[in-house]
């Protein structure tokens, strides 16, 4: 094994010289996770709002299910979807297994419960009278929904960032559903797992630095949004 200093220098060289293979992995990772968040966000908003403001049969069961799914390991989500998407599974005709679509589906399943739980808490912390007053004044429910969402926007942005942080670094579901195919489904976490298993640490360290910088940025934004929410209260 090479000295750590040499490996670190090689990792920095890969990052700052625009290594095609390395940046292809980074692009796949952000493309897949970004798409998953874009799809999951409106679903999470509507479900979180419904659980907080509406009363309907099965509401408490849905809250319990959402909270239970928070603790589900990524590998279990990956295994479940793998069985559904395999040729013998009920969704085998989709031919999604070992594609980016399957990875996106898995990441939606991972981040959605977290975003619903945080969104539900954000809506519950808001002033319910704003929703009730808007309806009393004849404001359409859709417009009233956006008014309430705007009031809780800082807490909801925190939920979005937390959801993105949950999926950008997960490896279990991505490995099982994507197959770790170079330049197609190999993302940052699966590439790190592969390279380090082969004893090639430079690329793993480079990709780890990307995740570290991204994690710092997400946490800084999360802290800022939470602070803005506290100021408004």
Task: Describe the protein's architecture and organization.
The chain has 233 residues and is mostly helical. It has a single domain, classed as MetI-like (MetI-like fold, Orthogonal Bundle). It is 78% helix and 0% strand. It is built from 11 helices and no strands. It has helices at 4-16, 20-53, 59-69, 74-85, 100-125, 128-136, 141-151, 153-168, 172-178, 188-197, 201-232. The longest helix is centred in the N-terminal third of the chain and has 34 residues, at 20-53. It is globular. The mean pLDDT is 90.
Give the SSE layout.
Layout: H1 4-16, H2 20-53, H3 59-69, H4 74-85, H5 100-125, H6 128-136, H7 141-151, H8 153-168, H9 172-178, H10 188-197, H11 201-232
Helix pairs in contact: 1-11, 2-5, 2-8, 3-5, 4-5, 4-9, 5-8, 5-9, 6-7, 8-11, 10-11
Gist?
This protein has 233 residues and is mostly helical. It has helices spanning 4-16, 20-53, 59-69, 74-85, 100-125, 128-136, 141-151, 153-168, 172-178, 188-197, 201-232.
Beta-strand level of the residues, as a percent range? Answer: under 5%
Task: Count the DSSP helices.
Answer: 11
Low-confidence stretches: none
Q: How confident overall, as mean pLDDT?
A: 90
């Amino acid at each position: 094994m090479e000295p750590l200093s040499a490996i670190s220098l090689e990792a920095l060289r890969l990052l700052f010289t625009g290594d095609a293979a390395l940046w292809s992995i980074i692009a796949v990772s952000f493309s897949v996770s970004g798409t998953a968040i874009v799809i999951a966000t409106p679903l999470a908003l509507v479900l979180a709002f419904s659980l907080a403001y509406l009363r309907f049969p099965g509401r408490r069961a849905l809250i319990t299910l959402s909270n239970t799914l928070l603790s589900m390991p990524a590998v279990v989500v990956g295994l479940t979807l793998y069985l559904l998407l395999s040729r013998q599974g009920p969704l085998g005709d989709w031919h999604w297994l070992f594609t980016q679509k399957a990875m996106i589906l898995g990441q939606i399943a991972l981040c959605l419960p977290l975003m619903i739980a945080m969104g539900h808490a954000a809506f519950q912390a808001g002033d319910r009278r704003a929703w009730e007053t808007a309806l009393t004044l004849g404001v359409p429910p859709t417009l009233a929904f956006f008014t309430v969402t705007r009031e809780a926007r800082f807490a909801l942005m925190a939920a979005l960032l937390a959801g993105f942080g949950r999926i950008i670094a997960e490896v279990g579901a991505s490995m099982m559903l994507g197959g770790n195919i170079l330049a197609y489904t190999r993302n940052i976490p699966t590439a790190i797992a592969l390279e380090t298993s082969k004893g090639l640490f430079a690329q793993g360290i480079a990709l780890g630095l990307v995740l570290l910088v991204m994690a710092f940025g997400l946490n800084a934004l999360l802290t800022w949004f939470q602070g803005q929410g506290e100021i408004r209260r």
